[in-house]
Amino acid sequence: MGLIRLRNLVRSKEILLRNMSIDIGGMRIKYKDKDDTFLEKHLVAKEPFGQFKAWFDEACGRKEILEPNAMCLATVSKDGYPSARFMLCKGYGKDGFKFFTNHGSRKAIEMSANQNVAATFYWEVLNRSVRIEGYVDKLSEEESTKYFHSRPVPSQIAACASYQSTPIESRDILCERERKLEAEYMIPEKEIPKPSYWGGYIIRPRAVEFWQGQRDRLHDRIKFRKPAEGEVVDGKLLHQGDDGWVYQRLSP
């Protein structure tokens, strides 16, 4: 009877899992007060990079935000299937946003077929997000090599040991590759050559949106973008920015 009861219990759980539908619609938190809005007059720059620096610096100053440079990078395959993953932004400026990865990874393969990408920074403590849409270019081999050798040695070895996104039989294989590389480079303290399959990219934005959450869900959204040919800046729905950018408020 004990075995039959156990089988029935397992069968009941399997049925429950197949039919499981968890309602989390009531999960929500309070954002900023109505008086704490993000208005056009609060912009510190009339182009996206200066505004990003102001928000990023504030995020860096909050100890609760452990990795303010974390961003979710979305790519699209040649067949139109999207994928997203978290990356660390390793530099930014008026030329764009930089990151580094394995050229054989899924993201890199997709970017080689379709240069269009999107990236999102989210700083929960500040109730702020920055959305970036644009296209990627590869960074120079010189810049990639310079950054590679600035990384901690264990990170350099990990980049050499892993053929990112390819199937692998077990973690033991990775650990064995790591041990061999450590014996070759760490004990004699030789410089680790950057793998040819590893390097950097830069996202060159076409649009950057700044989002700030509000308690009543009437969130603030101000978007910078490049104007379309012949588009008229009316000062109401569309405002003239600097360096060839325009900006507008979007409905939440």
UniProtKB/TrEMBL annotation:
PROSITE patterns: PYRIDOX_OXIDASE. It is an enzyme of class 1 (oxidoreductase). Its cofactor is FMN. Residues 198-252 form the Pyridoxine 5'-phosphate oxidase dimerisation C-terminal domain. Gene3D superfamilies: Electron Transport, Fmn-binding Protein, Chain A (2.30.110.10). Pathway: Cofactor metabolism; pyridoxal 5'-phosphate salvage; pyridoxal 5'-phosphate from pyridoxamine 5'-phosphate: step 1/1; Cofactor metabolism; pyridoxal 5'-phosphate salvage; pyridoxal 5'-phosphate from pyridoxine 5'-phosphate: step 1/1. Its EC number is 1.4.3.5. It comes from the Eukaryota. Keywords: Flavoprotein, FMN, Oxidoreductase, Pyridoxine biosynthesis. The keyword S-adenosyl-L-methionine does not apply. InterPro entries: Pyridox_Oxase, Pyridox_Oxase_CS, Pyridox_Oxase_N, Pyridoxamine_oxidase_dimer_C, Split_barrel_FMN-bd. One of its GO terms (biological process) is pyridoxine biosynthetic process. Residues 63-174 form the Pyridoxamine 5'-phosphate oxidase N-terminal domain. GO terms for molecular function: FMN binding; pyridoxamine phosphate oxidase activity. It holds the Pfam family PNP_phzG_C. Catalyzes the oxidation of either pyridoxine 5'-phosphate (PNP) or pyridoxamine 5'-phosphate (PMP) into pyridoxal 5'-phosphate (PLP). Belongs to the pyridoxamine 5'-phosphate oxidase family. Homodimer. This is pyridoxal 5'-phosphate synthase. It comes from Papilio xuthus.
